[in-house]
Protein backbone atom coordinates (compact mmCIF):
# COMPACT_ATOMS: atom_id res chain seq x y z
CA UNK A 1 0.00 0.00 0.00
CA UNK A 2 1.42 3.37 -1.06
CA UNK A 3 1.18 5.79 1.85
CA UNK A 4 1.51 9.57 1.90
CA UNK A 5 5.02 11.05 2.10
CA UNK A 6 4.20 12.76 5.36
CA UNK A 7 3.98 9.48 7.27
CA UNK A 8 6.87 7.68 5.58
CA UNK A 9 9.45 8.80 8.11
CA UNK A 10 7.14 8.89 11.11
CA UNK A 11 8.59 6.79 13.94
CA UNK A 12 6.42 5.24 16.64
CA UNK A 13 6.85 6.80 20.07
CA UNK A 14 9.85 5.14 21.79
CA UNK A 15 8.22 5.53 25.18
CA UNK A 16 5.13 3.63 24.07
CA UNK A 17 7.31 0.95 22.43
CA UNK A 18 9.18 0.10 25.65
CA UNK A 19 5.96 0.07 27.70
CA UNK A 20 4.45 -2.33 25.15
CA UNK A 21 7.52 -4.62 25.31
CA UNK A 22 7.40 -4.67 29.11
CA UNK A 23 3.68 -5.51 29.01
CA UNK A 24 4.35 -8.33 26.57
CA UNK A 25 6.96 -9.87 28.88
CA UNK A 26 4.63 -9.47 31.85
CA UNK A 27 1.85 -11.25 30.00
CA UNK A 28 4.27 -14.07 29.25
CA UNK A 29 4.63 -14.54 33.02
CA UNK A 30 7.85 -12.61 33.71
CA UNK A 31 8.22 -10.43 36.80
CA UNK A 32 8.86 -7.19 34.93
CA UNK A 33 9.28 -3.77 36.52
CA UNK A 34 8.34 -1.12 34.00
CA UNK A 35 9.98 2.25 34.52
CA UNK A 36 8.71 3.55 31.22
CA UNK A 37 5.32 4.91 32.26
CA UNK A 38 4.43 8.43 31.23
CA UNK A 39 1.44 8.70 33.52
CA UNK A 40 0.76 8.95 37.25
CA UNK A 41 -0.10 5.62 38.90
CA UNK A 42 -2.92 7.12 40.98
CA UNK A 43 -6.64 6.86 40.31
CA UNK A 44 -8.45 9.92 39.02
CA UNK A 45 -9.85 11.55 42.21
CA UNK A 46 -13.37 10.48 43.20
CA UNK A 47 -15.14 13.89 42.85
CA UNK A 48 -13.94 14.08 39.26
CA UNK A 49 -15.34 10.62 38.51
CA UNK A 50 -18.65 11.60 40.08
CA UNK A 51 -18.89 14.78 38.03
CA UNK A 52 -18.37 12.81 34.83
CA UNK A 53 -20.90 10.13 35.82
CA UNK A 54 -23.49 12.77 36.68
CA UNK A 55 -22.87 14.54 33.37
CA UNK A 56 -23.40 11.30 31.53
CA UNK A 57 -26.69 10.51 33.27
CA UNK A 58 -27.82 14.13 32.92
CA UNK A 59 -27.59 13.69 29.16
CA UNK A 60 -24.49 15.80 28.59
CA UNK A 61 -23.53 13.40 25.83
CA UNK A 62 -23.81 15.50 22.69
CA UNK A 63 -21.51 17.71 20.63
CA UNK A 64 -20.05 20.71 22.43
CA UNK A 65 -18.48 23.85 20.91
CA UNK A 66 -15.34 22.85 18.96
CA UNK A 67 -13.00 24.82 21.21
CA UNK A 68 -14.51 23.50 24.46
CA UNK A 69 -17.44 24.23 26.76
CA UNK A 70 -17.83 27.67 28.29
CA UNK A 71 -17.80 26.04 31.75
CA UNK A 72 -14.39 24.44 31.24
CA UNK A 73 -12.94 27.50 29.54
CA UNK A 74 -14.03 29.59 32.51
CA UNK A 75 -12.42 27.10 34.88
CA UNK A 76 -9.17 27.35 32.87
CA UNK A 77 -9.47 31.15 32.88
CA UNK A 78 -9.78 31.06 36.66
CA UNK A 79 -6.87 28.65 37.03
CA UNK A 80 -4.59 30.85 34.92
CA UNK A 81 -5.53 33.85 37.04
CA UNK A 82 -4.99 32.09 40.37
CA UNK A 83 -1.81 30.20 39.52
CA UNK A 84 -0.05 32.57 37.13
CA UNK A 85 -1.88 35.86 37.61
CA UNK A 86 -2.57 35.85 33.87
CA UNK A 87 -5.87 37.05 32.39
CA UNK A 88 -7.17 35.54 29.18
CA UNK A 89 -10.45 36.13 27.36
CA UNK A 90 -12.47 33.03 26.54
CA UNK A 91 -11.54 33.38 22.86
CA UNK A 92 -7.88 33.06 23.86
CA UNK A 93 -8.49 29.53 25.15
CA UNK A 94 -8.98 26.28 23.26
CA UNK A 95 -9.71 22.94 24.91
CA UNK A 96 -8.10 20.03 23.05
CA UNK A 97 -7.89 16.23 23.07
CA UNK A 98 -5.00 16.20 25.55
CA UNK A 99 -2.02 18.55 25.53
CA UNK A 100 -0.55 16.49 22.71
CA UNK A 101 -3.34 17.54 20.38
CA UNK A 102 -2.98 21.18 21.43
CA UNK A 103 0.65 21.03 20.29
CA UNK A 104 -0.23 19.17 17.10
CA UNK A 105 -2.91 21.70 16.17
CA UNK A 106 -0.65 24.62 17.05
CA UNK A 107 2.11 23.47 14.69
CA UNK A 108 -0.47 22.85 11.96
CA UNK A 109 -1.74 26.43 12.09
CA UNK A 110 1.67 28.03 12.63
CA UNK A 111 4.07 26.44 10.17
CA UNK A 112 4.58 26.66 6.45
CA UNK A 113 6.92 24.35 4.57
CA UNK A 114 10.50 24.57 5.92
CA UNK A 115 9.61 26.93 8.76
CA UNK A 116 11.89 26.20 11.67
CA UNK A 117 11.07 25.46 15.29
CA UNK A 118 13.89 25.38 17.82
CA UNK A 119 13.74 22.23 19.93
CA UNK A 120 16.14 22.04 22.88
CA UNK A 121 17.62 18.55 23.31
CA UNK A 122 16.72 16.37 25.24
CA UNK A 123 13.15 16.81 24.03
CA UNK A 124 9.80 15.15 24.48
CA UNK A 125 9.51 12.58 21.70
CA UNK A 126 6.48 14.00 19.92
CA UNK A 127 7.79 17.54 19.28
CA UNK A 128 9.98 16.75 16.24
CA UNK A 129 7.41 14.42 14.67
CA UNK A 130 4.60 16.94 15.10
CA UNK A 131 6.71 19.71 13.58
CA UNK A 132 7.56 17.49 10.62
CA UNK A 133 3.91 16.55 10.16
CA UNK A 134 3.22 20.27 9.73
CA UNK A 135 6.00 20.36 7.09
CA UNK A 136 8.20 22.37 9.42
CA UNK A 137 11.78 21.68 10.38
CA UNK A 138 12.85 20.92 13.95
CA UNK A 139 16.16 22.61 14.73
CA UNK A 140 17.81 20.80 17.59
CA UNK A 141 19.96 22.67 20.06
CA UNK A 142 21.97 20.62 22.53
CA UNK A 143 21.08 21.81 26.00
CA UNK A 144 24.17 20.73 27.93
CA UNK A 145 23.98 18.30 30.82
CA UNK A 146 26.59 20.47 32.56
CA UNK A 147 24.04 23.31 32.39
CA UNK A 148 21.28 21.05 33.80
CA UNK A 149 19.98 20.47 30.27
CA UNK A 150 18.84 24.09 29.98
CA UNK A 151 18.96 26.12 26.81
CA UNK A 152 21.08 29.28 27.15
CA UNK A 153 20.20 32.64 25.55
CA UNK A 154 23.45 32.45 23.55
CA UNK A 155 22.52 29.05 22.14
CA UNK A 156 19.05 30.31 21.29
CA UNK A 157 20.39 33.41 19.57
CA UNK A 158 22.79 31.30 17.50
CA UNK A 159 20.09 28.89 16.35
CA UNK A 160 17.74 31.61 15.06
CA UNK A 161 17.53 32.12 11.30
CA UNK A 162 15.10 34.09 9.14
CA UNK A 163 13.00 30.90 8.97
CA UNK A 164 12.60 30.50 12.74
CA UNK A 165 8.97 30.74 13.84
CA UNK A 166 9.05 29.35 17.36
CA UNK A 167 10.99 27.80 20.22
CA UNK A 168 9.69 25.12 22.56
CA UNK A 169 10.26 25.41 26.29
CA UNK A 170 9.15 22.56 28.54
CA UNK A 171 9.48 23.27 32.24
CA UNK A 172 9.38 21.05 34.28
CA UNK A 173 10.81 18.89 31.54
CA UNK A 174 10.07 15.46 30.23
CA UNK A 175 12.54 13.66 30.16
CA UNK A 176 14.97 15.51 32.46
CA UNK A 177 12.69 16.84 35.21
CA UNK A 178 14.64 20.11 35.28
CA UNK A 179 13.00 23.52 35.62
CA UNK A 180 13.96 26.97 34.40
CA UNK A 181 14.34 29.75 36.97
CA UNK A 182 12.59 33.07 36.42
CA UNK A 183 15.84 34.88 35.50
CA UNK A 184 16.70 32.23 32.93
CA UNK A 185 13.27 32.58 31.33
CA UNK A 186 13.64 36.36 31.33
CA UNK A 187 16.91 36.10 29.39
CA UNK A 188 15.47 33.62 26.87
CA UNK A 189 12.35 35.77 26.52
CA UNK A 190 14.46 38.81 25.61
CA UNK A 191 15.96 36.91 22.66
CA UNK A 192 12.51 35.76 21.51
CA UNK A 193 11.14 39.30 21.61
CA UNK A 194 14.15 40.68 19.78
CA UNK A 195 13.67 38.22 16.91
CA UNK A 196 9.87 38.07 17.14
CA UNK A 197 9.67 34.33 17.58
CA UNK A 198 6.78 32.60 19.28
CA UNK A 199 7.35 30.74 22.54
CA UNK A 200 5.56 27.42 22.89
CA UNK A 201 5.58 26.87 26.63
CA UNK A 202 4.64 23.29 27.50
CA UNK A 203 3.67 23.42 31.17
CA UNK A 204 1.97 20.04 31.48
CA UNK A 205 4.09 19.13 34.57
CA UNK A 206 3.50 22.49 36.26
CA UNK A 207 1.85 20.99 39.36
CA UNK A 208 4.50 18.35 39.96
CA UNK A 209 7.44 20.24 41.48
CA UNK A 210 9.50 19.16 44.47
CA UNK A 211 11.81 21.95 45.55
CA UNK A 212 11.43 25.52 46.71
CA UNK A 213 11.89 26.58 43.05
CA UNK A 214 8.42 27.72 42.08
CA UNK A 215 7.12 26.95 38.63
CA UNK A 216 7.15 30.13 36.58
CA UNK A 217 5.50 30.51 33.22
CA UNK A 218 7.48 32.68 30.81
CA UNK A 219 4.20 34.43 30.00
CA UNK A 220 4.07 35.78 33.58
CA UNK A 221 7.23 37.80 33.15
CA UNK A 222 5.85 40.70 31.10
CA UNK A 223 2.80 41.64 28.99
CA UNK A 224 5.04 41.46 25.89
CA UNK A 225 6.08 37.91 26.71
CA UNK A 226 2.48 36.97 27.45
CA UNK A 227 1.53 38.10 23.93
CA UNK A 228 4.49 36.19 22.47
CA UNK A 229 3.68 32.90 24.25
CA UNK A 230 1.22 30.07 23.72
CA UNK A 231 0.92 28.06 26.93
CA UNK A 232 0.13 24.37 26.63
CA UNK A 233 -1.26 22.60 29.67
CA UNK A 234 -3.93 20.13 30.74
CA UNK A 235 -5.22 17.83 33.45
CA UNK A 236 -3.47 14.63 32.32
CA UNK A 237 -0.53 14.74 34.72
CA UNK A 238 -1.79 17.18 37.36
CA UNK A 239 -5.00 15.29 38.16
CA UNK A 240 -4.02 11.81 37.00
CA UNK A 241 -6.38 11.99 34.02
CA UNK A 242 -4.26 10.77 31.11
CA UNK A 243 -7.04 8.65 29.62
CA UNK A 244 -9.64 11.40 29.66
CA UNK A 245 -7.72 13.34 27.01
CA UNK A 246 -8.24 16.95 28.04
CA UNK A 247 -5.60 19.58 27.40
CA UNK A 248 -5.63 23.18 26.32
CA UNK A 249 -3.75 26.06 24.74
CA UNK A 250 -3.99 29.72 25.72
CA UNK A 251 -2.54 32.68 23.87
CA UNK A 252 -2.93 35.00 20.91
CA UNK A 253 -6.56 35.27 19.69
CA UNK A 254 -5.74 34.73 16.02
CA UNK A 255 -3.77 31.58 16.72
CA UNK A 256 -6.48 30.18 19.00
CA UNK A 257 -9.16 30.98 16.43
CA UNK A 258 -7.24 29.15 13.69
CA UNK A 259 -6.70 26.19 16.00
CA UNK A 260 -10.42 26.12 16.81
CA UNK A 261 -11.34 26.19 13.12
CA UNK A 262 -8.98 23.32 12.45
CA UNK A 263 -10.40 21.34 15.38
CA UNK A 264 -13.93 21.93 14.11
CA UNK A 265 -13.03 20.00 10.94
CA UNK A 266 -10.88 17.32 12.53
CA UNK A 267 -12.18 16.40 15.98
CA UNK A 268 -15.44 18.40 16.32
CA UNK A 269 -14.91 18.68 20.08
CA UNK A 270 -13.19 17.06 23.04
CA UNK A 271 -15.39 14.38 24.69
CA UNK A 272 -18.30 16.09 26.42
CA UNK A 273 -18.19 14.25 29.74
CA UNK A 274 -14.37 14.45 29.90
CA UNK A 275 -14.74 18.23 29.71
CA UNK A 276 -17.09 18.18 32.70
CA UNK A 277 -14.56 16.00 34.53
CA UNK A 278 -11.75 18.46 33.78
CA UNK A 279 -13.91 21.37 34.95
CA UNK A 280 -14.47 19.51 38.24
CA UNK A 281 -10.71 18.90 38.46
CA UNK A 282 -10.00 22.63 38.37
CA UNK A 283 -12.91 23.89 40.43
CA UNK A 284 -12.83 21.19 43.15
CA UNK A 285 -10.43 20.58 46.04
CA UNK A 286 -6.77 20.44 45.02
CA UNK A 287 -5.96 18.14 47.95
CA UNK A 288 -5.53 15.03 45.74
CA UNK A 289 -2.97 16.91 43.62
CA UNK A 290 -1.02 17.69 46.79
CA UNK A 291 -1.15 14.06 47.99
CA UNK A 292 0.12 12.81 44.66
CA UNK A 293 2.90 15.37 44.69
CA UNK A 294 4.04 14.29 48.15
CA UNK A 295 4.20 10.64 47.09
CA UNK A 296 6.22 11.57 43.99
CA UNK A 297 8.54 13.74 46.04
CA UNK A 298 9.40 10.88 48.43
CA UNK A 299 10.00 8.50 45.53
CA UNK A 300 12.27 11.00 43.79
CA UNK A 301 14.47 11.45 46.87
CA UNK A 302 14.87 7.72 47.42
CA UNK A 303 15.29 6.63 43.81
CA UNK A 304 17.81 9.39 43.16
CA UNK A 305 19.97 8.24 46.10
CA UNK A 306 19.76 4.58 45.08
CA UNK A 307 20.69 5.33 41.48
CA UNK A 308 23.65 7.61 41.98
CA UNK A 309 25.15 5.02 44.35
CA UNK A 310 25.46 2.60 41.39
CA UNK A 311 28.93 2.67 39.74
CA UNK A 312 28.97 4.59 36.45
CA UNK A 313 25.57 6.26 36.86
CA UNK A 314 25.45 10.06 37.14
CA UNK A 315 22.31 12.15 37.33
CA UNK A 316 21.26 15.79 37.27
CA UNK A 317 18.78 15.96 40.15
CA UNK A 318 15.30 16.73 38.82
CA UNK A 319 13.06 19.38 40.35
CA UNK A 320 9.76 18.35 38.79
CA UNK A 321 7.73 15.91 36.64
CA UNK A 322 8.18 12.20 37.51
CA UNK A 323 11.30 11.18 35.63
CA UNK A 324 15.01 10.76 36.26
CA UNK A 325 17.32 11.07 33.28
CA UNK A 326 20.69 9.69 34.36
CA UNK A 327 23.78 9.57 32.19
CA UNK A 328 24.82 5.90 32.05
CA UNK A 329 27.68 6.23 29.57
CA UNK A 330 30.31 5.20 32.13
CA UNK A 331 28.25 2.20 33.30
CA UNK A 332 27.73 1.10 29.70
CA UNK A 333 31.48 1.24 29.06
CA UNK A 334 32.30 -0.43 32.37
CA UNK A 335 29.86 -3.21 31.49
CA UNK A 336 31.37 -3.71 28.03
CA UNK A 337 28.35 -2.73 25.90
CA UNK A 338 28.62 -0.80 22.63
CA UNK A 339 25.67 1.49 23.22
CA UNK A 340 23.11 2.56 25.79
CA UNK A 341 20.42 0.91 23.65
CA UNK A 342 22.21 -2.47 23.94
CA UNK A 343 22.66 -1.99 27.69
CA UNK A 344 18.94 -1.22 28.11
CA UNK A 345 18.01 -4.28 26.05
CA UNK A 346 20.23 -6.57 28.12
CA UNK A 347 18.88 -5.09 31.35
CA UNK A 348 15.34 -5.92 30.26
CA UNK A 349 16.30 -9.43 29.20
CA UNK A 350 18.39 -10.30 32.25
CA UNK A 351 16.84 -8.39 35.12
CA UNK A 352 13.41 -7.62 33.66
CA UNK A 353 13.68 -3.90 34.26
CA UNK A 354 12.32 -1.69 31.49
CA UNK A 355 13.93 1.74 31.02
CA UNK A 356 13.57 4.05 28.05
CA UNK A 357 16.82 4.66 26.12
CA UNK A 358 17.71 8.34 25.84
CA UNK A 359 18.23 8.10 22.07
CA UNK A 360 14.48 8.64 21.55
CA UNK A 361 14.83 11.98 23.36
CA UNK A 362 17.95 13.00 21.42
CA UNK A 363 20.31 12.15 24.29
CA UNK A 364 22.02 8.84 23.51
CA UNK A 365 24.11 8.67 26.71
CA UNK A 366 21.10 8.77 29.01
CA UNK A 367 18.12 6.67 30.02
CA UNK A 368 14.74 7.76 31.34
CA UNK A 369 13.24 6.21 34.44
CA UNK A 370 9.73 7.05 35.49
CA UNK A 371 8.93 6.89 39.20
CA UNK A 372 5.19 6.58 38.64
CA UNK A 373 5.20 3.19 40.39
CA UNK A 374 5.26 2.19 44.07
CA UNK A 375 8.28 2.79 46.28
CA UNK A 376 8.70 -0.96 46.85
CA UNK A 377 8.87 -1.58 43.14
CA UNK A 378 11.34 1.28 42.71
CA UNK A 379 13.61 -0.19 45.38
CA UNK A 380 13.42 -3.60 43.71
CA UNK A 381 14.22 -1.99 40.32
CA UNK A 382 17.21 -0.08 41.74
CA UNK A 383 18.56 -3.29 43.30
CA UNK A 384 18.18 -5.14 40.02
CA UNK A 385 19.99 -2.38 38.08
CA UNK A 386 22.78 -2.44 40.68
CA UNK A 387 23.08 -6.24 40.39
CA UNK A 388 23.13 -5.98 36.59
CA UNK A 389 25.92 -3.39 36.62
CA UNK A 390 27.95 -5.38 39.18
CA UNK A 391 27.49 -8.67 37.31
CA UNK A 392 28.86 -7.12 34.14
CA UNK A 393 31.93 -5.47 35.63
C1 LIG B 1 6.16 17.17 27.82
C2 LIG B 1 4.82 16.64 27.48
N1 LIG B 1 3.97 17.42 26.81
C3 LIG B 1 2.74 17.00 26.48
C4 LIG B 1 2.32 15.74 26.82
C5 LIG B 1 0.95 15.29 26.38
O1 LIG B 1 0.03 15.25 27.40
P1 LIG B 1 -1.45 14.73 27.15
O2 LIG B 1 -1.49 13.34 27.69
O3 LIG B 1 -2.34 15.68 27.87
O4 LIG B 1 -1.70 14.73 25.69
C6 LIG B 1 3.17 14.88 27.52
C7 LIG B 1 2.74 13.51 27.85
O5 LIG B 1 3.51 12.62 28.07
C8 LIG B 1 4.45 15.35 27.87
O6 LIG B 1 5.30 14.59 28.56
Draw up the topology in text.
Blueprint: H1 5-8, H2 14-27, E1 33-34, H3 46-57, H4 70-84, E2 93-96, H5 98-110, E3 116-121, H6 126-133, E4 137-142, H7 153-159, E5 164-170, H8 182-195, E6 198-202, H9 223-228, E7 229-234, E8 247-250, H10 253-266, H11 272-283, H12 287-308, E9 323-324, H13 329-334, H14 340-351, E10 353-354, E11 356-357, E12 367-370, H15 375-391
Parallel strand pairs: 1-10, 3-4, 3-5, 5-6, 6-7
Antiparallel strand pairs: 2-8, 7-8, 9-12, 11-12
Bound molecules: pyridoxal-5'-phosphate.
Order of helices and strands: HHEHHEHEHEHEHEHEEHHHEHHEEEH
Number of strands: 12
Count the DSSP helices. 15
Rounded to an integer in angstroms, the radius of gyration calculated over CA atoms is 21 Å
Helix content: 40-55%
**What order do the strands of the largest sheet run in, or round the barrel if closed?**
2-8-7-6-5-3-4
Largest sheet: 7 strands, mixed
Principal-axes shape call:
globular
Parts with pLDDT < 50 across at least 5 consecutive residues? none
Give the integer mean of the pLDDT values: 96
Distance from N terminus to C terminus (CA atoms, Å) equals: 48 Å
- Beta-strand percentage range: 5-15%
Give every kind of bound small molecule, once each: pyridoxal-5'-phosphate
**What structural class do helix, strand and pairing data support?**
alpha/beta
